[in-house]
Amino acid sequence: MERNISLVSLLCFIIFNGCLVLEADAVKSQRSEKLKLIHRHSPELGHNPETTLGPPKNSEERLKQLVQSDKARLHAIKRRLGVVGKANDRVEFPFRSAADLGFGQYFVSLRMGTPAHTFTLLVDTGSCLTWLKCKYTCIDCSAAWYGRRFFSANESSSFKSIPCSSQECKTMDKASTLPTCPHPNAPCYYDYSYLDGLNVAGSYFNETVKFRFSNGRKKGLEMTMGCTDGLNNLKRFQEVDGILALGLDPLSFAVKAAHEFGGKFSFCLENHWIIKSESSYLVFGKEDQVPNMQFTDLLNEESKMTSLYPIKVTGISINGTMLDIPSYVWDMTDKGAGGMIVDSGTTVTHLVEQAFDKVIAAFEPSLSMYNKTKGNLDYCFNAPPAEIFDESIIPRVAIHFEGGAKLEPAVDGYIFDDSKGVKCLGFVRVAWPEMNIMGNLLMQNHLWEFDLANKKVGFAPSKCMLD
């Protein structure tokens, strides 16, 4: 989810900087946190006819939702960069999905408070503040406003409000933290605006989150969160209680959990087109040994994109032949042009025109037997039903990274059913100067590890099965 830039709010994206210090303690390095992931179109979430939640009716509607979501997310990233308008001891949380809300891809069930209660939070790799619908300082705390579930701050003995006069408040995101401080013990307030029109307001607090290790042991960690008592789009949050932020800012859930559990986190995204309920997961800490893991460096400190996950691409090959794409396409500039980011919140892979045109040209000879047609993506064609469609004619794509790592996605990571008799290539053409974005469909069926301590990103083929 991306947050708009205003006088009182600024999107706090994923960042990594020198302020993050990770302990090399041998015990901590063996701990990890595992969270079950389910795709947002999974029927497991259920469907409320009074809300926008629920799976799409058909493949055309489904792909249309994904493309619309990606457009909003790409615009948000550009706004933030100023391009527009200027182990065996892992802790496990179950994940589940919802219909596409334009915020992100996956949802997690989190237990917090004393006594502990379970909340469903949207996982957002593009923000730094975890927040929940919450009763604390609100005047009208009606059940109609909150929906079926909310966090009742005054009923938790471990809830700690953060005073507006405190040093902790002063270190929060200055653009979104309000200067309001009527008296020293008043809460530290925030106001966030998202590009899709969502606005959330409330106060910061510290609360205990319950972690359950895979060996049965439990542990509580104090996390900084937001108690949201102002939300302008309740319809989208009838089934969701808030947002779990996986940004790399010291405030974020990801950084604090990774600090405790070995300096890294990882996730494995199930096949988008085969909906299951138990195969995707998110892990904080050390993963089991994975064969064929390849690594490339995170480049946060070398570009303006310090809030994202930029990695250095050296090229794209089709059927083993490297395409003649200008090298500057993969170089990041201080104005947010070029380079590639890994973004699990974007569905379809975005390529700048210099790269997109070369990829399409390499595909066209193999697809010449099919007529081009209109669809939800930039290159679509008429094709026979899946049971007789010859997938072997589809060229194999590989993304090459600095250091020799190479991602070879499955065909269903870049060939999608758009509607009956229509398929599309899973790439979106964006104008230069913009950035390239690797979407989660290209990442599916791979384990992705974000080693924050060593500033590396790793990946390996995986069936994404929980232990």
From TrEMBL:
Domain Peptidase A1: 106-460
Leader sequence segment: 1-26
Keyword Signal: yes
Region feature Disordered, mapped onto this chain: 38-58
GO annotation (BP), single: proteolysis
UniProt KW Hydrolase keyword: yes
GO molecular function annotations of the record: aspartic-type endopeptidase activity
Annotated InterPro entries: Aspartic_peptidase_A1, Pepsin-like_plant, PEPTIDASE_A1, Peptidase_aspartic_dom_sf, Plant_Aspart_Prot_A1, TAXi_C, TAXi_N
Positions annotated as active site in the UniProt record: 124, 343
Family the entry assigns: Belongs to the peptidase A1 family.
The protein, known as: Peptidase A1 domain-containing protein
Organism this protein belongs to: Gossypium barbadense (Sea Island cotton)
